Amino acid sequence: MAAALLHCCVLPLSLALLLITIGCVSGEGNEVNNERQSELRTDKTGRELNQAADSSPVQYALGENHAMGGRELALFPEVGPITTGWSERLLGSLYSILHFWNFPLDIIRSPSQEQDEATGHGASTPEDHNILFVLGDSPFDAGNNLYLNESNYPVASYPYGYTYFSNATGRVCDGRILPDFIAEYANLPLIPPSLQPGGDFYYGANFASSGAAVLDSDGSSGLHVLNLKGQVIQFKELVAKWNETLGADTTRQVLAKAVYLFSFGGNDYHNYYEKFYDEDSSPTPLEQEQFVKYIVGNTTDALIEMYELGARKIAFQNVGPMGCLPECKTQFPKFNGSCIPDLLSMPTLSNKELNKTLTDLAERLEGFKFSIFDYFIALMDRIENPSEYGFVYGSTECYSDGNLCEYPSAYVFFDEGHTTQCANEQLAKLFWEGDLSVTSPYNMKQLFEESKG
């Protein structure tokens, strides 16, 4: 009784002291931020959206996009990670004070803690919930290249990740990537990169690697990458571990219910075309067709290998409009800033061949189901008509040559080859529950529902 009375008396006093402390800290933070904001306006050389007071389309886009999760520029990377917001500081300090006074902390546990207890590792197995495996290239990489390249990796530092995370995570984006949103929609946590030491792969694994290709690359990018073959090998290693811990039968059931998300081909077509361009020539239509079949054929071999291990539900983001990416327009200047025809024709051929191949596999392989998201059309539409989707800039990147825009949410592209968090969220929603005009013959939501069988 005395202990309970002490808690009741001490808690209000602790909260009062806490609010005073938060107010002091917040005040100091505001003064510092105001000083940095002033410096930003005078010293920043990057593009800014608020230079023109009468930019009504810009202001409209900012309002629309910020409602979808955009955030202003985090100031001055040299000061370290973005300062935690007042609400997070309040909760953290409250937790510390209550812990000091030995308050029963179970009454303020977070929803995630409750979920961990409800579906925790000790209470369930991977067969009891959704599982997501991710394989692909840079748009899907959740950080594997950090472990492959360590300090020699440009996206390992600010401003990558700052819109959502407190620091760079290895995602080639200002914030979250498409697989992050898919995981959220499927009621899953962020799926960890497969190379993460001590990673928890209870809900799946992300094997994607920036620069990855279907074919083994020649390393000309200067980065160590996991190509499709390497990612499949890692998947097989995970399966072997599950066989040991869960048993072969249970593992196969888990793999059959899991959904497998893919993004491959863009780097193959880029590398193939680059060799022709360097010789001042272009691949003929026949050469393009043959190369496309070679890429899709090798992809098919990998899918069949995974199918034999138990994979059944396949989701593909098809190859995007490579020829209209800012980086391609810069790299191949003889087109004077126009889209590169061969880097549009090969992805178009590839997407048709992929659809044909997956349809054939679904007819031949028992239980095989697939989803294709028409990334080419969805991204091209945003490049050509950005204002229809709440963007201001469709073909100009936010971050270029060390200059960072103030509002990534106004841009389709964050850097010269990768979309912003806001664009990723829009695209993920189409992949998750889009109709047959953009995602077919199933969308990802339906694949997960099929997984519950």
UniProtKB/TrEMBL annotation:
<keyword id="KW-0732">Signal</keyword>
<protein>
    <submittedName>
        <fullName>GDSL lipase-like</fullName>
    </submittedName>
</protein>
<feature type="region of interest" description="Disordered">
    <location>
        <begin position="35"/>
        <end position="55"/>
    </location>
</feature>
<feature type="signal peptide">
    <location>
        <begin position="1"/>
        <end position="27"/>
    </location>
</feature>
<dbReference type="InterPro" id="IPR044552">
    <property type="entry name" value="GLIP1-5/GLL25"/>
</dbReference>
<dbReference type="InterPro" id="IPR001087">
    <property type="entry name" value="GDSL"/>
</dbReference>
<dbReference type="InterPro" id="IPR035669">
    <property type="entry name" value="SGNH_plant_lipase-like"/>
</dbReference>
<dbReference type="Pfam" id="PF00657">
    <property type="entry name" value="Lipase_GDSL"/>
</dbReference>
<dbReference type="GO" id="GO:0016298">
    <property type="term" value="F:lipase activity"/>
</dbReference>
<comment type="similarity">
    <text>Belongs to the 'GDSL' lipolytic enzyme family.</text>
</comment>
<dbReference type="InterPro" id="IPR036514">
    <property type="entry name" value="SGNH_hydro_sf"/>
</dbReference>
<feature type="compositionally biased region" description="Basic and acidic residues">
    <location>
        <begin position="35"/>
        <end position="47"/>
    </location>
</feature>
